[in-house]
Specification:
Strand order of the largest sheet: 3-4-2-5-1-6-7-8
CATH topology of the largest domain: Rossmann fold
CATH superfamily of the largest domain: P-loop containing nucleotide triphosphate hydrolases
Number of helices: 13
Radius of gyration: 25 Å
Oligomer: single chain
Length: 388
């Protein structure tokens, strides 16, 4: 199954493009599911049919689904209270009724991740189109599974969990507090769920379609999005330049002429962008979405690779190549911490586990050239296997 994540700056028309992309693929015979996390039914407005908590058949091959974050949050809270009932009773805590629970900020995004996982595991569709939030929130959302799994491993390490069978014995030893059984079970369940989402995002069939209006603000947003996605090793399937005005709109001069000129310049700078025309109104229904003529889904998107080049024989180092298009040297920071490399570039940050060979090395320097970070590692004589 292919997964196409669609995002862009707020107000760029990403939901409309998601709907049009899904409709076009379904029209060619593919079984398509389009997901959205918007509280307002903007997806349904674009498709011309209401969508909601239950998957809705739009056309013979297209299904739309807008999962209910409130219901999911209430179910999670109820399950948590059941698992932690002993602790809650000891504390004298009163349980919350599902009817009095209001979803916390971020519940929509977590619900979308869970729906993404469930849809991928079901394998009942050829293409999954996901209408993500605006780019800054989308990048934070895409980072969430990896970051949460890292937090769980730090808070309750695997070797600590392996001691579950010894808990009755260790609990009697001074200074060895052992978490309750429900904490182990909750940690394991969350790790399994997050790993499933992370697997979908890391799959070779997953890519991102960026949507932006051509112009200075769109250029800045696309540059930041490409950088943030590269740091997450997520490939960009295409860049859609949305709401492009026709050339004849410049004939009357004035504001429209300046907008056309501005869009023309940005389209030249973007090069490979796929223009989608401005219809003169908000697209509504199948006819309008078809008239947008969004590009077909590209099935041949190469993955983002972070290769390690072995230059020990020539230069005495291993070089880790990390693509960071648009990165600026002054905004780049690297920190080696144990077996991890902390990469900060502009507003984005990622803690990356080192490949096994690099764990036996020390950092020997780094350089940013042509949109690629090259980190040099020198073998540690105390850890590196001796030459034969």
């Amino acid at each position: 199954m292919r997964t196409l994540l669609i995002t862009g700056p707020g107000g760029s028309g990403r939901t409309t493009v998601a709907a049009a992309t899904a409709l076009k693929a379904a029209g060619r015979g593919a079984e398509v599911l389009v997901l959205s996390a918007d509280r307002a039914d903007t997806l349904g407005a674009a498709l011309g049919a209401p969508t909601g908590a239950a998957p809705t058949r739009i056309t013979p091959h297209l299904t739309a689904w807008r999962p209910d974050a409130a219901a999911g949050f209430r179910d999670d809270l109820a399950a948590f209270q059941d698992r932690a009932s002993t602790v809650l009773d000891l504390l004298g805590a009163s349980r919350l009724d599902p009817e009095e629970v209001t979803p916390l900020p971020g519940a929509e995004e977590l619900t979308l991740l869970r729906a993404l996982r469930d849809a991928a595991l079901a394998e009942t569709h050829d293409l999954l189109v996901v209408d993500l939030p605006p780019t800054p929130q989308a990048l934070a959302l895409l980072a969430l599974p990896e970051e949460l799994r890292r937090y769980l491993r730090r808070l309750l390490p695997p070797e600590r969990q392996a001691a579950r069978a010894l808990r009755p014995v260790l609990g009697r030893l001074a200074g060895v507090p052992m978490p309750a059984e429900w904490l182990y079970e909750t940690t394991a369940r969350w790790d399994l769920e997050l790993a499933a989402v992370q697997a979908v995002l890391a799959d070779r069939g997953t890519s991102v379609r960026l949507v932006a209006e051509p112009g200075p603000a769109g250029e800045d947003a696309v540059r930041d999005a490409r950088l943030g996605l590269a740091l997450r090793a997520l490939p960009v399937e295409s860049l859609v330049a949305n709401r492009v005005l026709p050339e004849e709109a410049a004939d009357g001069g004035g504001l429209l002429a300046r907008l056309v000129s501005q869009q023309r310049k940005t389209l030249v700078d973007w090069g490979e962008a796929r223009p989608v025309a401005h219809l003169g109104h908000d697209p509504r229904g199948e006819d309008d979405l078809t008239a947008l003529a969004v590009p077909d889904v590209n099935a041949g998107v190469p993955p983002v690779e972070w290769p390690v080049a072995d230059r020990v024989a020539q230069d005495g180092v291993l070089v880790w190549h990390i693509p960071l298009p648009g990165a600026i040297r002054d905004d780049l920071d690297l920190v080696r911490r144990g077996d991890e490399l902390v990469v900060t570039v502009g507003p984005f940050r990622r803690i990356v586990p080192l490949p096994s060979a690099l764990r036996r090395c020390t950092v020997d320097g780094a350089a940013l050239r042509d949109g690629e970070l090259r980190v040099r590692f020198a073998p540690d004589p105390g850890l590196w296997p001796p030459a034969r």
